[in-house]
Design goal:
Layout: E1 15-17, E2 20-22, E3 29-33, E4 40-45, H1 49-68, H2 71-87, H3 89-100, H4 104-124, E5 131-133, E6 141-148, E7 151-155, H5 163-175, E8 178-182, H6 188-200, E9 208-210, H7 216-225, E10 229-235, H8 238-247, E11 254-258, E12 263-267, H9 273-285, E13 295-301, H10 302-316, H11 337-352, E14 356-359, E15 374-377, H12 384-387, E16 394-400, H13 403-411, E17 415-416, E18 418-422, H14 426-435, E19 440-443, E20 458-459, E21 462-463, H15 468-473, E22 476-483
Parallel strand pairs: 7-8, 7-10, 8-9, 10-11, 12-13, 12-18, 13-16, 15-16, 18-19
Antiparallel strand pairs: 1-2, 3-4, 5-6, 6-22, 11-21, 14-15, 17-20
Active site: 258
GO biological process, one term: gamma-aminobutyric acid catabolic process
GO cellular component, one term: cytosol
Length: 487
């Protein structure tokens, strides 16, 4: 199935600057491929420094008018965008499966998840409240107001090519900011389809500008160097996030960084075994393990270890590996050749270090970028596979003795994005949740993200929060007003 199966109004092969669909100044393009088949889906412009500057110019020019639009009217436009996303959900899902690979049931879920942020911030934008403080003296009054931070640069990844955009753009627009967005060059069509629907919704020219580019470093440098860009929101690797963090120092930008993870998934002896297995499967193998919050290390207590592994193996072997467009598929390909080579190398190295293969462990005959769902036991915290983000369908299982050891292993990482644990003890729930050094903790639950909750990490997993009321605050500045001479 090709791009012809998607509504042609949503398939755009151009960037979008100042309300115009445009090509790269150089004429250069980026080829986009279907990871399941290797088929070329199309091409988009490979924009660079000049186009990025033009996009910042457009966002800067549109800022005053957009900031002055009443919050209720901004909410109406966002609501219209939401309605159009829902109306075109099937096309958006098919487009995403074609360029990203995940099965249709997952892309349909992502479109609804992404849309939920647009709906939430359409509502939340009307609630950017100021405060009035107790008067310091009789002749003074003290209050604060919330104002949009200004032009926002957003850089989004390929693993959630719809929701990572709406999670940044919706609160920025609701706050009264304008945006320059650089989506991943691996999955630009999903981004451009959202842009087409935003335009159709009536969001004014220059409010959202989209740069498609393979020149990530050059584009990132322009965005971080320009003093008109007051906020940078980035989702991606810790390595790149640290570079952008450093580059933003000269202009002291506000930052939201959602970086790498090394999520522990802890199963205690008293856990509901069926629930823990189901949670581990969905947390680990969603999007072929290519999520920043997916279980990276599965820690299982001695008493339940063998029973858990046996049931986990049975469940994992039920996964159907194949093209995401086939309704029977439950596990799609990984994104590219570099990804599958890395995954295969990590699995081989773990076995050479003493890990035992329970199931999988090799590339899958479904296609070049498919890897069989894999379980390894006998993994220790010293092995590379327990210390690095895998980003693939591989589950390393680590055995532990007691709560203290589980917490020590879980926290022995520079990352702190998501953690999960399963237990039936209410005492353990509180103690373990408080002891884990993570921004988000799933308790008897394998999936934790939604629009009402603050999503983000601690330590080297990032700064700031997306979703919830905090996600709106991250695009606003607080201005304190001190009024004197009150007689």
């Amino acid at each position: 199935m090709s791009m012809n199966s998607v509504n042609s109004k949503l398939v755009k092969d151009a960037g979008h600057i100042a309300g115009e669909w445009c090509q790269a100044d150089s004429g250069a393009t980026i080829a986009v491929y279907n990871p399941a088949t290797g088929e070329q889906l199309g091409q988009v412009p490979d924009m660079g420094i000049n186009e990025t500057r033009a996009a910042i110019d457009a966002a800067s020019k549109a800022l005053a008018n957009w900031s002055a639009v009443a919050p209720k009217e901004r909410a109406r436009l966002l609501r219209c965008w939401f309605d159009l996303i829902i109306e075109h959900k099937e096309d958006l899902a098919r487009l995403m499966t074609l360029e990203q690979g995940k099965p249709l049931f997952e892309t349909r879920g992502e479109v609804l998840y992404g849309a939920s942020y647009v709906e939430w911030y359409a509502e939340e934008g009307k609630r950017a409240y100021g405060k009035v403080f107790a008067a310091p003296t009789a002749d003074k009054r003290a209050l604060s107001i919330q104002q949009p931070i200004g032009v926002v640069a957003a850089i989004t990844p390929w693993n959630f090519p719809n929701a990572m955009i709406t999670r940044k753009v919706a609160p920025a627009l609701a706050a009264g900011c304008t945006v320059v967005l650089k989506p991943s060059e691996e999955t630009p069509f999903s981004a451009l389809a959202l842009m087409a629907l935003a335009e159709q919704a009536g969001i004014p020219a220059g409010v959202i500008n989209m740069i498609t580019s393979s020149q990530a470093a050059a584009v990132g440098k322009v965005l971080t160097d320009d003093s008109r860009v007051r906020k940078l929101s980035f989702t991606g690797s810790t390595r790149v996030g640290k570079l952008l963090y450093g580059q933003s120092a000269d202009t002291v930008k506000k930052l939201s960084l959602e970086l790498g993870g090394n999520a522990p998934f802890i199963v205690f002896d008293d856990a509901d075994l069926d629930a823990a297995v189901a949670g581990a499967v969905i947390s680990k193998f969603r999007n072929a393990g290519q999520t920043c919050v997916c279980a990276n290390r599965i820690l299982v207590q001695d008493g339940i270890h063998d029973a858990f592994v046996a049931r986990f193996k049975q469940a994992v072997e039920q996964l159907v590996v194949g093209n995401g467009l086939d309704d029977s598929s439950t596990l799609g390909p990984v994104i590219n050749q570099a990804a599958i080579d890395k995954i295969a190398g990590m699995v081989d190295k773990a076995q050479s270090e003493g890990a035992s293969l329970v199931t999988g462990g090799q590339r899958h005959p479904a296609g070049e970028l498919f890897f069989a769902p894999t379980i390894l036991t006998g993994v220790t915290q010293q092995m590379e596979i327990a210390r690095q983000e895998i980003f693939g369908p591989v589950a390393p299982v680590i055995r532990f003795k007691d709560d203290a050891e589980a917490i020590a292993i879980a926290n022995d990482t520079p990352y702190g994005l998501a953690a999960y644990f399963f237990t039936e003890s209410h005492s353990r729930i509180w103690k373990v949740a408080e002891a884990l050094e993570y921004g988000m903790v799933g308790i008897n639950e394998g999936i934790l993200s939604n629009e009402i909750a603050p999503f983000g990490g601690v330590k080297e997993s990032g700064l700031g929060r997306e979703g919830s009321s905090q996600g709106l605050e991250d695009y606003m500045e607080t201005k304190y007003l001190c009024m004197g001479g009150i007689r």
